[in-house]
# Entry
Amino acid sequence: AAPADATPDAPAPIVAANVETALEAAAPEAAPENAGENAAETPTASPAEATEAAPESAEPAPEAEPLALPTEPPAALPAVGSIYRGRVGSVSESGHIAVLNRVIDRANMKARIRANRDKQLRVRGMVFGFNRGGFDVMVDGIRTFCPAGALALEDIQDPSLYVGQVHEFTVPPSRGGRSIVVSRRGILQRERRKAAKARLAEISAGDVLKGKVSEVKDFGVVVDLGGGLDGFVHMSEISWVRGGKPSDSISVGDETEVKVLKLSDSKRRDRAGKVSLSIKACLPDPWTQHADILKVGGIFKASKVVSVTEFGAFVEIASGVEGLVHISELSSGGKRLEHANEAVQVGQELDVTIERLNEKDRKIGLSTLTKADLEAIESGDYDPATAPKSMKPGSHVDVIVERVEQHGLFVQVKGMLGKRGRGYINNRDLTIEGPERKKAYAVGKELKVKIVGKERNGRLKCSIRAMVLDEERKAVRDYRKEANKEGFGTFGDLLKSKLGG
# Structure
């Protein structure tokens, strides 16, 4: 209803009736002729300047009796369209008007509200308007102020939604000034903690729950599990894919499925406890999805570098599956690198093969492929079936000469790609010297060698001379076996026949 003397040009204010019945039991006062009626109200509240328009009367006595919260429900509100008579108790900056249906002893009522503050008791009030700083709240006919951050725990997007609501408030210690400040924050926080502890008691480690992302941080995300309980997902548990920020794969408001990894009780009374969550535990395991291609010797072309460290580069060979290329694999020309970023950068593509595979620890060792390796793959010369069964020292393997140097030969084990099959033969381990050496050990020549050890960088140490000695020893053993059986012939004749004349 608008005042009778309102001018046509002035906007008609929205009238909010103060819920006096909620407080009358605590402070009976003389009422106007329609005191039996109660009023309805509408919109919002909260002025930054919570000063009362009317001057204060005598300072309230410190012995003032505190307000008591009503135990009976308020009377029925007046019907829409009915005529309501009352006094204008306060006008909010938002244009809402609080209409009171009884006379208020302001000084006495303020004293009683402050008595509630001193005794840490709650008061009940109605939100009847708002401004840029907060909300106007009518407490037993006295206009009080509730800051925006003290009315709700979440950010308030539309303050008009709070107008007309009746709540219990606490009265924080006064910081001076004439206005009275009230707050719901402590009440809401206690209710949330109580609900969070109840929710925490309902869940166990290993449970799969649904939640909503409420906050995204650089090191993880916070997920609302309902009931005021939040859980935290560390960035390593968001996705199977390494690298990137949490914000690259998830946003505030996203609904997600999470698995409870760990629950821990809080040592502080004001907290419910910690819940560690995992999103990736609810996603398909890439190691299972790509099990058919994750094998030693597997070839992966144009794989992307996802991160670089001092000891090497992590390369994604399949979605959610990464392997490590050691820094020794990245150096060219024998140059020693201090950091892998001296050779490769994030986003760069590499051709790699799986050298080692540890499914238990989910670790993959990768080796880069040389130009010769790629040519062998494209030409069809590479045949994994020809790979030796054993690469341990003492094994005899077939190798192909890749490079000839003054000090020796660089070779590659036949049927193997990458670092695992790379070897070196020093000149002293060769059996042919002089002008025939260059022809006998030309690039592309296939040789039979013995693995005698490994260098510090993982390259195989090979020897033709040691392989020949093994062959001779084997011939002697075979001779002795046959001589014991046959009993004739000379050792020279038998050895000659075993060595092919």
In short: The two ends are 125 Å apart (CA to CA). The longest helix spans residues 464-486.
